[in-house]
Amino acid sequence: MWAQDAQPHDRDQPPVHEQALEADRPHVPEARSTVGKGRLLFEGGHTFTTTHVQGLTRHSHMYPEALLRYGLTTGFEVRLGQNALSQQDSGARGTTTLHGAQDLELGVKLALTDQHTLVPESAVILRLTVPTGSRGVSADAVLPGINYDLSWHMLPERLSIEGVLSATRARDEAGRLFVRLAQGLTGVYTLTAHLEAFTDWYAFYAASAGGAGTGAQHYAVGGLVYFLTPNVALDIRAGGGLTKAADHFFAGAGLALRY
After folding, report:
1. Using omega within 30 degrees of 0 as the cis cutoff, is the peptide bond preceding 26 cis?
2. What pLDDT is stored for residue 56 in this prediction?
3. Where is pLDDT greater, at 208 or 73?
4. Whole-angstrom distance, CA of residue 124 vs CA of residue 169
5. Beta bridge pairs of residue 170
6. CA nearest 21: which of 186, 214, 229, 246?
7. Is the pTM higher than 0.70?
8. Closest CA to 75 of 28, 32, 128, 17
9. Torsion of Cα atoms, 175 then 143 then 162 then 78, to 10°
10. Phi, psi at residue 214, to the nearest 5°?
11. What is the DSSP code string of 60-84?
């Protein structure tokens, strides 16, 4: 797809082209590449979710979905994430609300392989959240996790297939700690020089005690990413749950800026 832009250059030198940014959002699988040595990438957005939980109707907003990525080397980056939650539950007993900052996320990403025939482009993300969030929102525990992201360019400049496998320590609403496994698969389609579309399927599973009663959560998502320049991208997405335990509907928008 369109991903290059001529940069200022000397008349005696060939033009230098810049590859478009690869943000971790909005696809469920994160970018397999790192941001690049000495580069800074900011990602942010907002997601609205609605679902029904044990006789309650729940509406929630997640923002600013902030993620800062900085490249220490060509294949290694450090990451800092911060988010906030605004949630409202309405039912027969009235309405309750919950607002506050979520726990700070720290992490690193290491690029592993480039694509070669059947070998995918891949990267691993090591991350953890630390209990810095607001009361009632914070997990009150250090929660580590690992993601393995991979992709294949099936049709050059037209179609890519992305995937992710992850395991994360989590805490359910009853306060019990458990291990959450996740997997996802995404198709990315280049529509024009500036516009790409994508479709996601992903699922969450409880792999240990606590959280196991919620059942598997499967989702289907679709969206668009528009590249204003190689260093600025806008995205929108919407989707819904495919299983009883999943959220019913969600939609969101965001942006990515590279410096």
Report:
1. yes
2. 86
3. 73
4. 17
5. 178
6. 229
7. yes
8. 32
9. 150
10. -80, -20
11. EEEEEEEEEEEEEETTEEEEEEEEE
pLDDT digits (tens, 9 = 90+) for 102-111: 999 999 999 9
Size of the chain in residues = 259
Domain residue ranges of the chain, discontinuous segments joined by +? 40-258
Q: Which amino acid is at 245?
A: A
CB atoms within 10 A of CB 13: 7
Record the tokens describing residue 196, joined without a space: 């790409």
Q: Are 26 and 223 in contact (CB under 8 A)?
A: yes
| Superfamily classification of domain 40-258 | monomeric porin ompg (2.40.160.40)
Determine the straight-line distance between the first and last CA of the chain, rounded to whole angstroms. Answer: 21
- Distance from C-alpha of 248 to C-alpha of 58, rounded to nearest angstrom: 10
pLDDT category at 70 given cuts 50, 70, 90 is very high
The amino acid occupying position 214 is: T
Give the type of residue at 52.
H
**How far is it, in rounded angstroms, from Cα 44 to Cα 25?**
8
Phi, psi (degrees; rounded to nearest 5) at 102: -85, 175
Question: Rounded to an integer, what distance in angstroms lies between the CA atom of residue 224 and that of residue 172?
Answer: 32
Nearest partner of 84 among 41, 128, 126, 132, judged by Cα? 132
Distance (Å, whole) CA 59 – CA 97: 10
Place of tokens 């997601």: 47
Q: Where are the beta strands (DSSP E) in the chain?
A: 40-53, 56-73, 76-91, 94-101, 104-113, 121-130, 143-155, 159-171, 177-190, 195-206, 217-229, 232-241, 249-258
Residue owning tokens 């900085």: 70
DSSP lists the bridge partners of residue 98 as: 87
Q: What are residue 101's DSSP bridge partners?
A: 84
Cα angle for residues 109, 112, 116 (degrees, 5° grid): 145
* pLDDT of 218 higher than 50: yes
